[in-house]
Design goal:
single chain; about 325 residues
Length: about 325
């Protein structure tokens, strides 16, 4: 199905559906009930985290430039402090790994669907002197909830990745999270949401890899870890992640972000003990969608690298090398 969606996007098709017509009435009724339960609280407007990170590493070297694009997840909706947003967490982590300052610019828009990416890419590329070294895109959840045709969704994503890569930026895409794990969503909508989310995530992986980007499956963002700890990992509206949830997502993306810039040790060496492999891109995409935190990057077509990069939490006693954001230099 993921391959059909990707192929439909490439050749202009838009009619591939993920939903049996006979089930539409029941599922819409379930969705209405879920909407009344989800978002019972109020998610604060995402704080701005744009600025300079890693000032302790100032040594005269120009800072790396990191761009964030996507929806409310990329923007950091659900937390109140800039340092808790995924952009800030990734910028701090990148600065620590690279031992170099990082400038963050976040143009993500809460509520955005994939058709907003063209506008966001235009913003991020508006200044030729400030083209990002790497961009992170998190998108897809609103495409599912608003029933955007998946072929249209991935076509917009492919176009965004192509423009960024053509401009010289590396691209890492956090694929559609598992919406079947949102706590107030019940069966049969839960099963369908999980199925549709994974199909879209797999299709996103195929088109991103074809355009020279890398993907990280974010099923766990609203997936198994959220199912196990919904009170800890969901924000006050029971839908957007909490600070702990965003930290979990950032830990999954950071190794791939660093690897895209050649900053991660043995960046593309396969570890058989971690079940890493070179697979046909469609198979790699399907496996990644089913296993959160999995990276897929291009090898020689039509093959892709499937990797499970190590990541762990910082304990309360470990020092952090991250530095708070400072206003961006003009």
């Amino acid at each position: 199905m993921a391959r059909r969606i990707a192929a439909g996007a490439a050749f202009g098709g838009g009619g591939i559906g993920l939903l049996a017509t006979a089930a539409v009435g029941v599922l819409l009724a379930e969705a209405a009930l879920a909407r009344r339960s989800v978002g019972g609280g109020t998610a604060p407007h995402p704080p701005s985290a744009d600025g300079l990170y890693g000032v302790a590493f100032a040594n005269g070297t120009p800072p790396l430039r990191l761009g964030m694009l996507g929806d409310s997840t990329a923007a950091g909706q659900g937390v109140r402090r800039a340092g808790q947003t995924p952009g800030a967490l990734l910028a701090s982590g990148l600065a620590a790994v690279a031992e170099q300052m990082v400038t963050l610019r976040n143009v993500a828009q809460p509520g955005a669907q994939s058709d907003d990416l063209d506008r966001q890419v235009s913003l991020i590329l508006a200044d030729p002197a400030r083209i990002p070294d790497v961009c992170v895109i998190m998108i897809g959840a609103n495409d599912v909830t608003h029933r955007m045709q998946p072929t249209i969704s991935v076509r917009h994503l492919a176009g965004a990745v192509r423009r960024l890569r053509t401009a010289g930026a590396e691209v890492v895409v956090g694929t559609c999270p598992d919406l079947g794990s949102v706590e107030p969503v019940y069966q049969p909508l839960r099963w369908l949401a999980r199925r549709v989310s994974r199909q879209l995530a797999a299709a996103q992986t195929i088109v991103v890899v074809e355009q020279g980007g890398r993907t990280v499956s974010l099923g766990h963002l609203l997936g198994p870890e959220f199912e196990a700890n919904p009170r800890e990992l969901f924000g006050p509206d029971n839908y957007h992640p909490s600070a702990e949830g965003y930290a979990t997502a950032a830990m999954a993306v950071l190794p791939t972000l660093c690897a895209s810039l050649g900053l991660w040790p043995d960046a593309d060496r396969l570890d058989a003990d971690r079940h890493e492999d070179i697979l046909p891109v469609a198979k790699a995409a399907a496996e990644a969608a089913a296993e959160p935190g999995t990276e897929v990057s291009g090898a020689r077509a039509p093959w892709a690298l499937l990797k499970h990069r190590r990541r762990r939490r910082l304990t309360a006693t470990e020092p952090s090398t991250a530095h708070p954001a400072h206003p961006a230099h003009p």
